[in-house]
Each structure stands twice: as C-alpha cells, then as structure tokens.
Amino acid sequence: xxxxxRRALSMIAAAELLAMSLWFSATAAxxxxxxxxxxxxxxxxxxxxxxxxxxxxxxFLSSALTLSDVIRPRxxxxxxxxxxxxxxxxxxxxxxxxxxxIALRFLTGVALAGVYPPGMKILTGWFRDGRGxxxxxxxxxxxxxxxxxxxxRAVGGVGSPRVVLYGAALLATVGGLLALVVEPGPHQAPxxxxxxxxxxxxxxxxxxxxxxxxYFGHMWELYAVWTWxxxxxxxxxxxxxxxxxxxxxxxxxxxxxxxxxxxxxxSAGMAADRxxxxxxxxxxxxxxxxxxxxxxxxFGSSLYLLVPFVLIWGFAVVADSAQFxxxxxxxxxxxxxxxALTLQTAVGFLLTTISIQLVPVLVDLVGWQWAFAPLAIxxxxxxxxxLRLRGLPxxxxxxxxxx
Length: 403
Known about the structure:
- This protein is mainly alpha-helical.
- Helix content is 78%, strand content 0%.
- Helix 6 (73-94) packs antiparallel against helix 10 (161-179).
- The radius of gyration is 20 Å and the shape is globular.
C-alpha cells in the first residue's frame, strides 16, 4: 500500500507541475508580446488577470454543478489540462492582438479550475494520515510549475515569446496524460449525486469557513506577489545601477522566488502534520506579511541582500497554502470534499483579481518600493481567522487532533 501511495503522489504531483506551467505562460512572455502587439500596460496586465477570472468562473461553475464529485477526478484533470494547453498554443500560433489573447487566457483559467481541485481530491483518496504533507507536495508542484515559464524565458525565451507559450502547452499536455494513470485511492469518496444544497451546508459550517478565511487572506497576497515580482526585481536591480542583461537576471530570480515555494509547501506540510495546521499557517503568514513591508526597505539593494530576501519571501508566501486545503478536506462533508475545495479556491482566486490590479495603481502612487506593503493586510486577517479556528471543537479534526 505504501508504495502505491508514493506512486500516486509522485504521478499526480508531476502532472500538476507540468499542467500549471500554463498559468504564467503569457505573463512571462508579456514584455515581448506587449512590444510585438503594441499592448498598453492595462492590456498586458489582463493577460494575467484573465486567467484568474477564468479560474474563478470555472471553479464557481464546477462548485455549482459539483463536477469534482460527479466526474472522476483523473478524467476531469486530464481533459482540463489538454484544453488549457490548446488555448495557450492557439495564442502562440494564431493571435496578434489583445482581445483574442485575453479571451483565450480566460478560457485557460476556466480549464485550470479542472486541474488543481481535482488533483487535491485525488490525494485525499490516498492519504488520511500525512494529508498535510501530501497536499503540500501537490502545492509545491503547482508552485514550481507556475514558475516554469520564467525559466523558459530565462533560458531562451527573452525576445522569443512563442518558445514560452509552446513550451508551456507541451508540458501541460504531458501533465494531462500523466493524470490518467493515477488510480483512485482506497479512501476516495464514491461519486456523489448532484446536490445543490451541498454548498449551503458548507457556507453554514463555521470551522470550514474559518479555514477559508485563512486561505482568503493568504491569497490576497500570493498571486499579486507572484505576478509582479518580476517587475519589482527589474525596477530594484535598475535602482541599484543594473543594466544590460538585467531582464534575464530578473527572470531567473523570479523563477527562483516562485519555485522555492515548492520547498516551502512540502516543508510546511510535514510540519503541519506534526505540530498542527493553525500553528504552521500562522507562522508562515507572519513571515510573508512582514516581507510585504520589508520589500520597501530592501528595494534598490545589492543582489547580495535582494536575492536571499526574495527567496525567503518566496519560501514563506506559499508554504501555508496547502494547509488551508488540507484543513477544509478534514472539516467538510466527506462526500463533497471536491466541491468544498473548488469553492474555496474560487473565492480565493476572485480576491486575487483585485490585489493583482491594485499593485500597479500603488506603483503609480508610491513606486515599486512600497507597492507591496498593503498586501500585508491579507496575512494579518488570515492569521486571525486560523487562530479563531484553533479554539473551536471542530479543530480536533485537523491533522489527527494536532491543531
């Protein structure tokens, strides 16, 4: 059994890593696409925002129809990954203006709503003990996958946006095929009937909603940082006198900042299974919240200070992410865990569409130095929510009684 669990975890993590390369594919290629297509700053930002909105729309639709519990998750995962890859390849092959690109990015987001939550449900079917670690590995894979487009750009995509787009599409297709070979686990809940009342029961469950509150505060910060850290790095390096190959350096450093979160997610998963979900999430949000403010103090510093700072931030900013999902999987109604996870991610990603758009507004007001500071309110609210959850009787369900 242990070898089968490890195999399932390895395969779904690999599939998630490859499929999630679609998320920031156009974001990584945005400087070249903007120059080639003559995009405004607003149109360029929408290449990312459209994915967030598409994910939200897809996740809400999936929640309303309880798709993650009605359709076998590996089939939903595979079909969604291939659909997202097709949209991304279409941008590379046929698009040269903003409107169709944004539309295809929206559809890519809709498709990715069928990748991440079903991946989590697959793992809940294999892991009861060690669930925080397992979902941590999945989120770690998602994190590294999200960073891959920046690596593709750094090693050959500067000036060649189609290298990034076609590369991400190919990786996602392989990821979708890998998901098909993952067998359902022994704890997988049977396919549930369509039940529109399931969402209402979730919304009335206090423990589940407090876990969601932690996730929402975390998400207010996460994707705004991931989206704008490349631009922050370019501006910071320039403020310290950097020139020449600074775009490539910033892309490589952006990859490292996002990708190291994979290590953070796995490490936090192991710690949460041992010390408790509310404790680990509160510490992680504390570190990342402080980093939002400290980014202003580090701005313009030498790489000797900037590099370790953003790596620590990147480690902490996503370390807690999996534990909110693990908590919901332990608190929610077992037959509709997939729907509960999908609803959680839907609302969380809806918040990201606001914070992503907020950052460039703040840049115009206070510059890149202090543009991230208001994001700290998210980790603060999230921490308060998780500490409140810690005091409820329902918290005894978390991590085998370890709050």
